[in-house]
Amino acid sequence: MASSDAPRRLYPALILTVAAVLRLAVVLAATRGASVAWFFSTGAELGNLAESLRTGHGFSSPFGGATGPTAFLAPGYPAFVAAIFAVFGPYTHASALLIMLLQALFGVATVFMLMSLARPVFGDTAANLAGLIWALCPFAWFIPTLFWESSLSILLATSILALALAARGRHTLTRWLLMGLVAALTLAINPSLLPILAGYYGWAIYQARHQSLRAPASGFLLCLLLSAPWVIRNAAQLHAFIPLRTNAGYELWQGNRPGADGFFEVPLHPTVNRDQFNRYASLGELAYMREKSAQAKAAIAADPAHFATLTARRALWFWTGRARVPRKLEMAYIITITTFGLVGLALLWFRDRALTIYFLLPLLLFPLPYYITHPDVRFRMILDPMLVALAAYALTGKARNKSKSL
After folding, report:
1. No. of helices (H) and no. of strands (E), the chain
2. Could you tell me the residue ranges of all domains in the chain?
């Protein structure tokens, strides 16, 4: 496992081309000569919000009908889809194709960011291997065909790690303002990445406790400033302090309601369940979410042992890719990457514990909400690029000590 000190070469152009060709081929195959109804059906609330924005009704009615303002989803991705709907038409073949192509572009950009963060820490050989693994991963090819923010979330999570590593020990104002900008964009796209952001900010403040906190604090304040309009909008239209989303109680209920098996139950979603939709429409969003939260907490209190069992199972399912209907190849890939990634993490721990924290924080913090709600492979895939980087390190040997840029 020892690596040579001889110079290595990085092959980003070749690897990025491979990644682009494979993802483009999947997108074209998925949209060629077929109805795209299947694509839009996978994220009905996303499409409803985009269409509401496009038609001038604001950020409202995520489950259809005319149920009023919402904060069920963060505003960023629905606004992105609404812009495409406005130009290419709602739910059209052209809109579906463009969304998938842009999501494929996010996937290719993730390969670039993965190589960017791996090279300074692990060297050229590991960076090439990490980029190639993610470029060739067949499960990553299909992420762009999901009508959801998953492709962009994976890119943002990888970019956050790359920025945090770049800012390590260099508390310059420019780097932390960029981190604040990316953090605000991340929260507008997928607030579930908040634990990663909070972990990095906390770690940066701890490391700089004997130095000036001006740069990290400035980045944090920029994030707050850019996020403030969403909070103000929610206070004005929903009459409550909602910094991110309203769906926490609903997700808790999905995974812990009486009779729950720990997975998300699509037939109980208000977009497909008439009783749930009617209840949501009659109560209003905040009251509906509070009711779901109360029901979930009551079920947990009534049988805490069952909740503990489900939580342990969900943690296992998150890290093994276990779904209600097991997919053996997908599980084999996830278990393999997780195993080699953890080996790489252990090797890095013995080399540089402070550096290891940057990889450890996302792996520890990001899954926590899913342990108590419900797991899904697309949530787990957000962590895959950083696990792939660690796996490449485990397979190629000693990390380099000097940083270089891609």
Report:
1. 20, 0
2. 154-240
